[in-house]
Amino acid sequence: MKKTFLKKVVISGLVLSLALTLTACGTTNQASTASGSSTQAASNYPTKPITVLQGFSAGGGSDQLAQMTEPYLQKILGQTFVNQYIPGATGAIAWTQLARQTKSDGYTISITNTPMLMTNYLMSSDIKYNIDQLTPIANVLTDPGILVVSKDSPFKTYQDFTNYAIAHPGQLTIGNSGTGGDDFFSILQWQKATGLSLKQIPFQGDGPSWQAAAGDKVQASSTNLGVVYSQVKAGNLRALALYADKRSDLLPDVPTLKELGVDMVAGSSRGYSAPKGIPDAVKKKLEDAFAQMAKDPAFQKGLHDAALPADIKIGDDYAKYLKDQETTFKSIWDSVKEQVAAQKK
Amino acid sequence: MNNLMMGLLNVVSPFNLLAVAAGTALGLFVGAMPGLSATMAIALLLPVTFGMDPATGISMLAALYMGAMYGGSISAILIRTPGTPAAAATVMDGYPMAQQGRAGKALGVSLTASLIGGVLSSIALLTIAPLLGKAALSFGPVELFAIAVLGMTIIGSLSSGSPIKGILSGVAGLLIAMIGMDPISGVPRFTFGTMYLFNGVSYVVALIGLFSIPQALRLVEKDDGSQKAALIKDRMLPTWKELKSMIVTILRSSVIGIFTGLIPGTGGDTACWFGYNEAKRFSKEKEKFGTGYPEGVAASEAANNAVVGGALVPTITLGIPGSSATAILLGGLMVHGIMPGPTLMTDHAQITYTLIWAVMLSNIFMFLEGLVFTRAAVSVTKVPNKVLAPIIVILCVIGSFTINNSINDVFVMIGFGILGYFMDKLDIPTAPMVVGMILGMMLDNTMRQSLLMSSGKWSIFLSSPLSTILLIIALLSLLQSTPIFAWLKKALFKKNAPQLGGK
Description:
The structure holds two protein chains of two kinds. Chain A is α/β, with parallel strands linked by helices.
């Protein structure tokens, strides 16, 4: 008797867990396949939850943006947001789905990160989407690039750093967050602007890159302000230069590259985009929601506390920004493509 | 000290206790389900904790991590399918024990070893975290390469019977790890033009297929109604005498686990193999490993639970995740508006110390809940094979899908399942393939980073004392299994017999 009871308990437990998991999977899928894009539906948009495709795992930079923005957007639009994580190929799997397999009804949008959004397809012909297949809605933040060295580094200033690079062309090791990432391109951009050359060491992500610099495994790391701000503040890393238009009020002592005579601005931006061809009314509604959110002091404080500089660009501004970036990255990549290919051999 | 007490007071508030207990229970359950891993469960539960107080939410996730590390051994022992990748090494001796009718004992040993490993790592976390945390920074590409090389020698001890077959399996695993975007040049390798292979083949997905699908097929093939073994006739927990005989192994594995956790990029998935390998290396009864030897179970289980505290050390002291699961925890903190970094121990000390105490407490919950849960779980083996097998397959499908929400991963899992089935028929061990896949990516990436840094000079691998020592240990491990070593040992042993005898 007792045995059959236990058996039942275990089996029903298994069945229950199956059912729960399946429902959990089902709800997210339902939202993405749901249809209904007529002009009438567009006017009272949104009438059902909005699915947000994330090209990266839960807890990453994309998710951080989602959790910081979606509570405000939900309040403004009166609908919930459903995050769907589709990590893989530096976001390309999610963005390909957005550009090519998603209904243009505004119920499926995605968090779009630069420069990966463009460099993915610029660098690999196997990736088949491009930004012309998207409707950029709004950029939310831009995390500027920053040059850091370990606290024990002989490089006390940016000048020390360049002097060494001049004396040892191609020898100074600098970590980036991965080939094709924002830091990889920032360093290329810097090399082009200064005519100097460094030895790039690609890591898998920003973390390993700055950690290698902090542990004196590489001589410097090019990373992002939001990533290393707390480390710089705690004195584990020294910041030499910020790749922003103007100094950050978080680290007011760190000069910008522009001040130092290098005319470049670089970083990684995160925003939201929809597939191409969403109804104008829906586009307007989404853009207005972002504009309204940007004015909310609570939202601004949240970004500031996380050391993430707001960089609101709505609609066509965002589209133009992406297009300009695409041109910049394409020219940088074209000029180094042969070089990288040669290095590989 | 003040923060320390504050954290303790915080954690014993009824709601936090409930969260820790619930997290541990959930971890046990998720861990025991083949295909659902701790990392995945934390990722799935993370959005739920966004609505909670940060200390409560993160404590719950850490408790889940701890629970899952033991939970994984339940299915590893009972049905030969590791519930989490970190329990893969537990299969080696756990399942043979179950087959011999000692399932209860195997689970008891696993639970006790998990408890000791977990408690030791929590103590390390509570006391010497700041000291240990700095060590995480001393692991750069060069040192990580040496660790990967040392890890590869584990294949030797997993290929009992035919070394050639073991090497074949390990090398195949290494080759599979090469699939995907080349981390240095950014050029896709062996992807056949599909971007689904850009990130390579996930070893978690492959492991689900390699271990679980062949087992499901085996269950159907020899369907004799139900398995006869697995009854808890004997007492579950090891006796004092039994415990004493394996305490050295448990302590060694705990230290290995803490350090493996500490090193960024390695976690329980690696630690269980290291723990198992070292236990076998130091054992006087090497030949008993793999035949249902309780020490084998203890070695791997103490190691994977010790990882939890170890991995949290750099996470809280420096903001560097020590394993993939703690990386998600860190992401969770970030979403709560808490910046990961050195400020965790100062500005956010209250949250951090609550977390540390929660980890400590989760060990106790794990032990108590584990006792109850395990007794219930043993009855799984009384489920007829023809019912159990399809359930395993369904869980594998769900598990491999949930990792990346990708149907392609399901196909990859099934592909590896079929491969595993035939490897099984040909007596080729699947464990070396998994080790090859886990370490292959790290081996490839760190070797090329190091060579880039040294402009192609191989001497860089001997430039750091840490990597030199690790590489020497690796070399010794290799020699150990050749006739040269036996001869050397004999020669030395004869000379120093009196001293060695005293040990």
